[in-house]
Write a structure and sequence with these properties.
Radius of gyration: 24 Å
Shape: globular
Number of strands: 22
Structural class: alpha/beta
Distance between the termini: 65 Å
Strand content: 15-25%
Helix content: 25-40%
Length: 458
């Protein structure tokens, strides 16, 4: 049995930088990856989908030139093979860079294969059994597939990126991040798109006004929504398409299309690790239980990224790496609870969210002040011809600290960081209110919004 100082299972956004960090400290590292070097984000997540979002945006711009006085000849069409080639090239360049770094590092031994625990702090990968005093699990997650759809020809967030032809009619089950982003991009590529959501609103954890606004601008682009519709099952059609059976009070009980995308959630990739042999505990959903410093119930074994259930984003996975690295080598005491929830929905326009939603803030029982600004009142948005959406900020009326904010509109995915910085600094909203921001920008209206905060009534 070969002994290392550390074993890392999974090369996602926490595992890869941790491997190089441990190596820089002179630690002998076994680094294991079974499928995608670089993890989900690089290979089948953020990088490829945002590349597709950019291509879809180009199509939208070509179709909307007249609104800004530009006559663009008709005939614009999408070459999905070229879109895919661009995506593949971007991924390949990044993956090759990681592999080159691994191969040139004398402290890292890279194993390509599936890992499983074979005992207390021992791991079997391929035909080798290895051990270490410290183990870091970064196995990520995968698309959840309901049992009633496992015999259907379905796509998930990974396989849909391999299509070379544009679907005639794409049915999407699930109205959250993955479903909405793919829905808009393929609608812009030319597909008919129907999104089925079992709840009354899309993105169920968002405030209703945010969800409604997103649904409305997607409907304006031609996407059909079926809400309050529980998908019971699916079947393959003789013609090659798929039919989905739904239980709903309005609309047809069956929806047929050429392709089906399942976007109903994610499941952690922990079921093949044989965690029981190492004594590592998971919860009822399969997520590995960790404490504030990401250590499991077994001292010396840590879980980072999507598989610990503490975050479902690339930035939270990378922060997991930062927490572990700083606590081990930086002389710091960092905790998961130190971070503020933030995320973006990369529709067009995008949504940026920091901290609490308004509904969540109400439940704290604190006295609140709320600021609101329509994008149609922002000069820069009008100049760009992109006035959909709004900005909102929630303030603790007693401490003057920002509890949450959202920016739904042009640049919202970037602008939200302005609020996030203030929240991490623990500063009064008045600091931002009294700031001088550059003109003409969307951000410059944030101080104006903060000058007109209104006390929230019950």
């Amino acid at each position: 049995m070969k002994k290392f100082d550390a074993i890392i299972i999974g090369s996602g956004q926490a595992g890869t930088p941790l491997a190089f960090k441990l190596a820089s400290e002179g630690k002998k590292v076994a680094f294991i990856e079974k499928e995608h070097v670089g993890g989900t984000c690089l290979n089948v997540g953020c990088t490829p989908t945002k590349a597709y979002v950019a291509s879809a945006r180009r199509v939208w711009e070509a179709m909307h030139g007249k609104e800004l006085g530009i006559d663009i000849p008709e005939g614009t069409k999408v070459n999905l093979e070229k879109v895919k080639e661009r995506k593949d090239a971007m991924i390949s360049k990044s993956v090759n860079g990681i592999l080159e770094g691994l191969n040139n590092n004398k402290y890292i031994t890279f194993y390509e294969g599936e890992a499983a625990f074979s005992g207390d702090k021992t791991v079997k990968v391929n035909r080798d059994e290895i051990t270490a005093d410290q183990l870091f699990i970064n196995v990520g997650g995968r698309a959840f597939v309901p049992e009633s759809f496992k015999q259907v020809h379905y796509l998930d967030n990974q396989s849909i990126l391999e299509l070379k032809e544009i679907p005639e009619h794409l049915i999407i089950v699930g109205g959250s991040y993955i479903g909405l982003e793919f829905g808009q991009m393929f609608r812009r590529f030319g597909s008919k798109v129907t999104i089925i959501e079992r709840n009354a609103t899309i993105i169920g954890h968002e405030d209703k006004d945010v969800s409604d606004a997103i649904r409305q601008f997607l409907e304006k682009e031609g996407i059909e929504f079926r809400l309050n519709a529980n998908c019971l099952s699916g079947k393959n059609n003789a013609s090659g398409g798929v039919t989905v059976k739904v239980d709903c009070t309005n609309g047809a009980p069956e929806i047929s299309g050429s392709h089906l995308l399942l976007a109903v959630g994610r499941a952690p990739n922990t079921d093949t690790l044989n965690l029981e042999s190492a004594g590592v505990k998971t919860n009822e959903r399969g997520f590995i239980e960790v404490n504030e410093t990401l250590e499991t119930n077994v001292p010396g074994i840590y879980a980072l990224g999507d598989c610990n259930g503490k975050g479902a984003f690339t930035h939270t996975a990378y922060n997991d790496y930062e927490i572990v690295a700083d606590n081990l080598f930086g002389g710091k005491t960092r905790k998961v609870s130190d971070r503020i929830l933030t995320y973006s929905l990369f529709t067009d326009p995008p949504l940026g969210r920091a901290g609490l939603t308004l509904e969540q803030a109400r439940k704290t029982g604190k006295k609140l002040k709320v600021g609101f600004m329509k994008m149609s009142n922002v000069a820069r948005a009008r100049e760009k011809g992109e006035t959909t959406g709004f900005m909102q900020v929630i303030v603790d009326a007693e401490t003057d600290k920002i509890l949450g904010a959202c920016v739904l509109g042009t640049g919202g995915d970037e602008i939200i960081s302005l609020f996030l910085g203030m929240m991490y600094a623990g500063a009064s909203y008045k600091v931002l209110m009294d700031s001088v921001l550059p003109h003409p920008t969307v951000s410059e209206l944030i101080p104006t919004m903060l000058e007109s905060l209104q006390e929230l009534k019950d």
